[in-house]
Fold this sequence. Notes:
Two copies of one chain form a homodimer. By secondary structure, chain A is an alpha/beta fold. Chain A folds into five domains: about 1-130, NAD(P)-binding Rossmann-like Domain (Rossmann fold, 3-Layer(aba) Sandwich), CATH 3.40.50; about 155-285, Rossmann fold, CATH 3.40.50.261; about 300-455, Rossmann fold (3-Layer(aba) Sandwich), CATH 3.40.50; about 495-565, ATP-grasp fold, A domain (Dna Ligase, domain 1, 2-Layer Sandwich); about 570-685, 2-Layer Sandwich (D-amino Acid Aminotransferase, Chain A, domain 1). Chain A contains 21 helices and 29 strands. In chain A, the strands form six sheets. The first copy, chain A, has a seven-stranded mixed sheet, with helices on both faces. In chain A, strands 24, 25, 26, 27, 28 and 29 form a six-stranded antiparallel sheet that branches. In chain A, strands 2-1-5-6-7 form a five-stranded parallel sheet, with helices on both faces. The first copy, chain A, is flat, with a radius of gyration of 31 Å. Chain A starts with 5 loop residues before the first helix and ends in a 5-residue tail after the last strand. In chain A, about 55% of the residues are buried. Residues about 250-265 of chain A have low confidence and may be disordered. The interface between A and B is large, with 75 and 75 residues.
Amino acid sequence: xxxxxxxxxxxxxxxxxxxxxxxxxxxxxxxxxxxxxxxxxxxxxxxxxxxxxxxxxxxxxxxxxxxxxxxxxxxxxxxxxxxxxxxxxxxxxxxxxxxxxxxxxxxxxxxxxxxxxxxxxxxxxxxxxxxxxxxxxxxxxxxxxxxxxxxxxxxxxxxxxxxxxxxxxxxxxxxxxxxxxxxxxxxxxxxxxxxxxxxxxxxxxxxxxxxxxxxxxxxxxxxxxxxxxxxxxxxxxxxxxxxxxxxxxxxxxxxxxxxxxxxxxxxxxxxxxxxxxxxxxxxxxxxxxxxxxxxxxxxxxxxxxxxxxxxxxxxxxxxxxxxxxxxxxxxxxxxxxxxxxxxxxxxxxxxxxxxxxxxxxxxxxxxxxxxxxxxxxxxxxxxxxxxxxxxxxxxxxxxxxxxxxxxxxxxxxxxxxxxxxxxxxxxxxxxxxxxxxxxxxxxxxxxxxxxxxxxxxxxxxxxxxxxxxxxxxxxxxxxxxxxxxxxxxxxxxxxxxxxxxxxxxxxxxxxxxxxxxxxxxxxxxxxxxxxxxxxxxxxxxxxxxxxxxxxxxxxxxxxxxxxxxxxxxxxxxxxxxxxxxxxxxxxxxxxxxxxxxxxxxxxxxxxxxxxxxxxxxxxxxxxxxxxxxxxxxxxxxxxxxxxxxxxxxxxxxxxxxxxxxxxxxxxxxxxxxxxxxxxxxxxxxxxxxxx
Amino acid sequence: xxxxxxxxxxxxxxxxxxxxxxxxxxxxxxxxxxxxxxxxxxxxxxxxxxxxxxxxxxxxxxxxxxxxxxxxxxxxxxxxxxxxxxxxxxxxxxxxxxxxxxxxxxxxxxxxxxxxxxxxxxxxxxxxxxxxxxxxxxxxxxxxxxxxxxxxxxxxxxxxxxxxxxxxxxxxxxxxxxxxxxxxxxxxxxxxxxxxxxxxxxxxxxxxxxxxxxxxxxxxxxxxxxxxxxxxxxxxxxxxxxxxxxxxxxxxxxxxxxxxxxxxxxxxxxxxxxxxxxxxxxxxxxxxxxxxxxxxxxxxxxxxxxxxxxxxxxxxxxxxxxxxxxxxxxxxxxxxxxxxxxxxxxxxxxxxxxxxxxxxxxxxxxxxxxxxxxxxxxxxxxxxxxxxxxxxxxxxxxxxxxxxxxxxxxxxxxxxxxxxxxxxxxxxxxxxxxxxxxxxxxxxxxxxxxxxxxxxxxxxxxxxxxxxxxxxxxxxxxxxxxxxxxxxxxxxxxxxxxxxxxxxxxxxxxxxxxxxxxxxxxxxxxxxxxxxxxxxxxxxxxxxxxxxxxxxxxxxxxxxxxxxxxxxxxxxxxxxxxxxxxxxxxxxxxxxxxxxxxxxxxxxxxxxxxxxxxxxxxxxxxxxxxxxxxxxxxxxxxxxxxxxxxxxxxxxxxxxxxxxxxxxxxxxxxxxxxxxxxxxxxxxxxxxxxx
Lengths: 691, 691
């Protein structure tokens, strides 16, 4: 549910608890920051004994201050914070920013934080923090916190970038980069421990903020994960890119990973899947984050991945071409017609292919602008990169290049900007980068934003699966197979047998050749113990296999029990599975199967449930996707049937999440088109709640 | 052969041809550059009519100038250059730098360049260029060329970085980066079209230059490729890293390079193999090149991949940890003993794990230095990263951190350097980067340098293969198989048959089941035409297969001819092959086979020949290498036998390079250990010289 943060971020009156005549106190600093940013509302220092702080009348408690306070900034020792929040509640204050640290982020601080949350809930006060640096509303001149006004340093320009960060230090460093490069900022929020309000809440607020054009977020986890996808889609509809860095790849440890799917689906891939579902762009580096934000603040998003490069350096153009193509974009040559048009502006010893090379001798801003306009008008490209070194080029020249096209345009300079130009770099009409790899990464990421925005709405949710599962379904193969069949996921014909005679009869009924597999409760990796016998082509072979399996069972001290199945026809082998993520809940996975599954990590993941259209997109994303098309005279595979299985399993994962933690369908044989898929084996892991 | 470039790079006298009273002429600029750099030797302007240029006595020709000139800088129109070189020869001048463009790099200029080369050879003059910007010998104050003295801009500091670049523009931009960051430079050479002296020659000279510590090279192709490996190994023995960017890897990049310099872009993986053999580090970005050079100029190379991170920001430390581990380095936790030692310097609410977190409140230079020293003394790490924001930290503090360890140490700042510190960034005792990904890349690349330096000498070359091949060996399967057998590469038992009866007899002799394959001259992809029949288990099946193959042969208008072989036992399927690279000659490859070979690019390449030890290393580099170890109850594979095949094939590729352009052993079945490999099929492509 959307929270109205207006009184928090645009407060008409603010009290600062902890401001005092001690100039180095955190609260004094917070008050000074608000004043130095020319806060225009009412300001009330709160101090038990001082009558005045920094020339302002002080009050002993929030309860004693004038009524109608919108926001209280709290900077007192940790044990005293809850009392201040009670005061806020009594005075009808809706929001508090808690700068104080020493809560959940330190060992032994969890209880204090739980207590704080309880008091805040009871008092009807919404919290930022604790352990927050506060926030900066640059658009309206509210610097409520510590360090957010960058005291003693330059202030950021006012502009369209909203910064939301769980880490205060990393958030400030992003603000610092914006400031040093002249990139305009709308707001910065340090969400701290997120005992109440979360990063997702502030991202949502930024979507509604008319001053914000691009949102960058730094996260170490996601709280309020259930709203992430909804908020992300809202940002996409509003045309506001959300760029997110998520740190801590090994965070969701502690969960016993028993099955194959579990080990392949690292928690980090789940974040990838979640950000993707939300239409947010994940970045792995602060420079990439910043480059992409700078690019997208110009409001131009590529409609595809066709890139034209205009250069005056052959070497630089080639380097750009290499890295841009390596990043998955396409530098198609100009058409005959376009080349003829370009020749008017390009010297004979230049090139009208792509890169279009005006050469060092042909360089003039007019020629560049004409080439950019001609490329743009051709409709053959989705984005343009101009190599114009930041050497003698003026801001006006750069603006004239930007005005020559409405396409997304990126500047590349192999020369570093002059010291004079550097503070203006983020404000140039053409966003600039100074390395080919950064150019490639920013274009590829921006194209992903466009792709996410153009993606159709996901469509109807799949038909639900009855929530019939119990942990007992994981106990035996037969119970597992029956549960899966009830969800529309029938395994290949199978019989459970408990004697040699039963095994032979089953084989005869099912038809040779058959497979015979040990079936012991809780045993997932049957082949590891020598419990799998394949391609048994007659009764003698079945009898011998039974004896072998029985011996293994004796060795393990389990009953003589096995599953007999007809051998599967050949096809493309895949694995389909699902797991329960601690943060995002059920997740479905499809991946390459067979021997290569162990050596080549080739998986696609989605938050469950997904419909068949989404499942098909997921299948097509695998590296092995070309195998489904049928190479070298082999028939095309039934990917539609595979998509149905993936979608059904995703629905089952949701329906059964209270009982079942993991499901592995392995292997799944994808047969030729029209013949469906064969689910050869399956395993469940019951949910054990030890969180 | 090493060329003595002393008189070129440290000339006692220089003539400039093309210097005139026209201040904008290229030659005038070159003369002015030399003078502005305070060249201390003799300087002679050469002009047909002027008696004096820039206050120096001018001469009508090099022939008329005083004797003993070491170097002539040539800046006259292209058609006049050859005449000047003749003059140089007549005057006994050993070296000329040709700044003039309009030779091989422009269409129609190849003839002019060939003529120039011929004249230079005849005259005994060695050339830099044409189309060169000249060179800067910063150590000795010789700026011979155009732009190399960075006229009107700051000069670089004098230091240990040598820059060699085929592209003048890219080379100057590297020089610009060094200058703006205070990184010291020893020399810069723009090699231009390399009609004579090449990038490899100048890299070699830099190895011998006592002022040079690190060499960076920008290449669009490699000329003098036969000496690359030898020169690279010499650099490694001298302890001087060579960092190389080779552009033109992709189709678009290659297109740009060709339209730029007319150079031929070889297969990109072959360049990787060549640089690897030479112990050079390839980079794909100018920032990576620069970061790595800055790091290595401190003279510290990691002895392994164990990294310790010391931080005062939890978020920044986590981000570093994520990216460094993602780049393949290891952040192992500190041992119990080390943790106990670290506790003396780390606050209780910090962390003595790795990252070691001193927290924002615990920050002091002394604590950082103590932690760095303790980590260093422990012997548990090969490199240290310190997160100390470039905010208020002084150069002296940074120097004291560097002095606390002899390990390679890298600084990371999530804050950008202040404008005051930026020009000194490259000169800090601890090299700094400002993004986690850059930190990870520079550490990984530096570790690769150490690895290359520690690699044992390659050992003896493999036993040579007799050079018995003729193009006819590629004509038929039988001829191919026989040639391969002569090189110690016998195929699985095979018989060539020309009738149904012969096929049946062959199958009976070889033992069922067999394979029967159409054998037509020049037909490589037999299965594409339906010419392959596998698993024939009796005479009827062989007869039917023969009829089918005969029908295909009739359809293709080729004789009835087939190969019969016993079916291969199962094992790991690979492809082994070799090709003739235009630049580097014979190259050997091993890669994943089977259906995945088509969708997953998993190959290792080396310049041929290689011995069995090298071949084994190559096999172990494949992504599928874990399959050779025998997972899930399967036996370990005979990788030694595979290595023998790869080594033998590499020797054959060298011996047969005049006749054979490509050899494909596909598939090669690697059997369980001790059972060798099975070469199932092979194809040769005869060499056709159309270069």
